[in-house]
Amino acid sequence: MSDKMWAGRFLKESDAMADDFNSSISFDSRMYRQDIEGSAAHAAMLGAKGIIPQAAADTIIDALGHIKDDIESGKLPIDPACEDIHMFVEAELTRRIGDAGKMLHTARSRNDQVALDLRMYLRDECAEAERLIDELIEAVLSQAKDNIYTIMPGYTHLQRAQPVTFAHYILAYAMMLLRDRSRIRDAVNRMNVSPLGACALAGTTYDIDRRATAEALGFGGVCLNSMDAVSDRDFCVELMSAFALTMAHLSRFSEELILWSSWEFGFVELDDAYTTGSSIMPQKKNSDMAELVRGKTGRVYGDLMAMLTVLKGLPLAYNKDMQEDKEAMFDSLDTVKKCLAIFAPMVRTMRVRRDAMSNAAQKGFINATDLADYLVRRGMPFRTAYKTVGRLVAKCIAEDKVLQTLTLEEYRQASPLFEDDVYQSIDLQTCVSRRISEGGTGPASVRAQIDYITEQLDK
Ligand code: ARG
Question: Does the model's pTM come out above 0.85?
Fold first, then answer.
């Protein structure tokens, strides 16, 4: 009859379609290493506490090591017929060492086991996600260092607003990415407590040592309520929301790169390696990678919503609904990692077209605020200065001029406070270098930002 682990209680085979529907091995086998490490730590504790014979514990640990090696070398293919990775490893262990293998699941349940594996897996993966964020921040930094004096228009409402430097502009993204990294770290810190020993839901009658397994597996502590330990997927929600926000940032950055790569802007040119051509239009160079990152943001948002929805209204403790955590979580993780990985070299290799930025900055009256400030420095109240400059801008638009090309006479007709130093004070370099306020676009502030971000990278 059935060779299922629970065959004792069942009189009939399960339906093949139900087996397939129930199975998670196609997506949870990626946690094989954490599953094996967790099992080895559990076996060691069971041996040390005399719950199983020490010799059995040693045999289990040794065999688990070989199973891990064999999976890694490809000698032991994962059997898709097993329900999940936990069953697969245990079945293989028992196949190899017989009765000793059957002792491993003493004082444990798949409910605490899967919670353990997932926390360990995500903890490892988050280190990699953080490293990828760092790489992207480094790429932004290298572009920023080369462009401390590159003037471009800054926008509000996508209308030219005030001059900024390209360095200042893209450092804004480095700041967002630093926060993303910090949110991932926060999530990992809260996640880093061990659920092992919560067993099915209520704990166990065996005298286990949860602190010992937690310590052996690198956890900072243990989950203090066994029912919470097996039901909690907050850590997935937290991570997925950190990833969703990371994607929001990457998608905004993508949108800028796509716009800036257009003929209309022409501010940057993405390297050939990160663009594609068209199958019909020979002139095209499309920013597909950036567009895909923007598009994939939708899936990562969706993953977060899927997880929240799975948890909504779930009674304690474990319910099979929770098996749905992994596909959403892994999709979110894989997607954000892939997007970060492609983004870093794309930013590092892009060509910044300073002339186009500078040309765009000449138009659009982005020094109008500075002109008003000039009058304010000469004693005019800001609101009056604002109106005076507004009238000058209207005159320029009517006569197809820019503020730099108005004559001193024209300026003095608007206000006798204007002197010939007005031209110097609306020069775009002046406008930028005068923005000395902390966090502003002036070169000293930009250098301070670069130093801050560089320091944070090593932390
Ligand atoms: N494959 C299951 C999951 O991913 C493992 C836990 C199963 N526990 C249970 N009582 N059926 O959630």
Answer: yes
